[in-house]
Amino acid sequence: DQQVKQNSPSLSVQEGRISILNCDYTNSMFDYFLWYKKYPAEGPTFLISISSIKDKNEDGRFTVFLNKSAKHLSLHIVPSQPGDSAVYFCAARITGGGNKLTFGTGTQLKVEL
Amino acid sequence: NAGVTQTPKFQVLKTGQSMTLQCAQDMNHNSMYWYRQDPGMGLRLIYYSASEGTTDKGEVPNGYNVSRLNKREFSLRLESAAPSQTSVYFCASSEPGQGIAEAFFGQGTRLTVV
Fold it and tell me: Which of A6, A41, A103 sits opposite B43 (nearest CB)?
């Protein structure tokens, strides 16, 4: 049972435009949501997170929105840059779960010139 | 500041062989994790160690064992490798606490079992 879902395997965006990556979840016990970025042959690197008690968190070009009623979160990248081309994983942490993360399957973002 | 270091980076095993993947972190984190990444599957938790001296199974523990050697090191052992264990393995560490959720990952070990 996939508790964290990323239904778009890939996304292509032009440089300078907005990239929107989506993630859905099913478990109401998740208390933190995170986005990781992964380049080929490297480990995932933490990008941004949001607590379940908030609906928005912003860090520079990256903003994460959380809609708890819809069990949906999204990552907005504005403006998109070629260096943003990578696989983006959505992840979630269960309350009291020892920081174990449940990951989605990832979305490959390609930012074109 | 190395963060999380995994060895080896690449390995090819024959079915039935055994090997140990090593992981060390220098961030003084209490918790460490082993994940595997397979195409179309995201990252799945194999085992984790909430603190030195404790280990617990994750989502896909079958065929693996772990050892939390000390606070810095967490190893993953394949006793009898199978082709289904062909994957990229990531070690991670974190310091669970109020408002802290992110884990830091190593560069990964690409394992092929033939």
Answer: A103
Q: What is the pLDDT of residue B12?
A: 97
Select the residue of B94, B96, B105 nearest A43 (Cβ to Cβ): B105
Q: Which residues of A touch B31 (CB under 8 A)?
A: 98-99
Q: Do residues A36 and A44 touch, judged by C-beta distance below 8 A?
A: yes
Q: Is the pLDDT of residue A11 over 80?
A: yes
- Digit-coded pLDDT (tens) for B8-19: 999 999 999 999
The answer to whether A60 contacts chain B (CB < 8 Å) is: no
The answer to whether A18 and A78 are in contact (CB under 8 A) is: yes
Residue numbers of A between 11 and 40 with CB closer than 8 Å to B: 32, 34, 36
What are the φ/ψ torsions at residue B61 (nearest 5 degrees)?
-85, -15
What pLDDT score does B61 carry?
Answer: 97
The identity of residue A1, as a single letter, is D
What average pLDDT does chain A have? 95
Nearest to B107 among A9, A42, A46 (CB): A42
Strands B109-113 and B10-13: parallel
Query: Do residues B80 and B18 lie in contact, with contact meaning Cβ atoms separated by under 8 Å?
Result: yes
Report the alpha-carbon distance of residue A61 to residue B87 in Å, rounded: 33
- The C-alpha atoms of residue B57 and residue B63 are separated, in whole angstroms, by 11
pLDDT of amino acid A73: 97
